[in-house]
Amino acid sequence: MSNIIPIEYDGCSMRFFEDGWIDATTAAEKFGKAPNDFLRLPETDAYISGLKRR
User: Fold this and answer.
1) 5 has which bridge partners?
2) Cα torsion 19, 20, 21, 23: sign
3) Is residue 24 helix, strand or coil?
4) Is the distance from CB of 6 to CB of 17 less than 8 angstroms?
C-alpha cells in the first residue's frame, strides 16, 4: 500500500502522506519556489512573532 495520497487543488496535483504531511517540495515546485521560501515573507515573520508573544 502506498503512503502517498494524491489530490487535485486549483488544477495542480498535490500529494499528502498518510500521517497528514504535505509534500511541500512538489507543491512549491508548481509555483517555481522552494519549500523554505515562505520564511522570507513579512507575513511569516509577523506570524512567528505572534507565536513568540503567546
Assistant:
1) 16
2) positive
3) helix
4) no
The half-sphere exposure of 22 on its side-chain side, counting CA atoms within 13 A, is: 12
pLDDT tens column, 10-26:
888 888 877 778 888 88
Strands (E) in the chain, as ranges, are 4-9, 12-17
Q: What is the pTM of this model?
A: 0.52
| Spans of all domains in the chain | 4-53
Print burial letters for 13-30: b (CB count within 10 Å at least 16), e (below 16): ebbeeeeeeebeeebbee
Pairwise CA distance, residues 14 & 8, whole Å = 6
DSSP 3-state of 18: coil
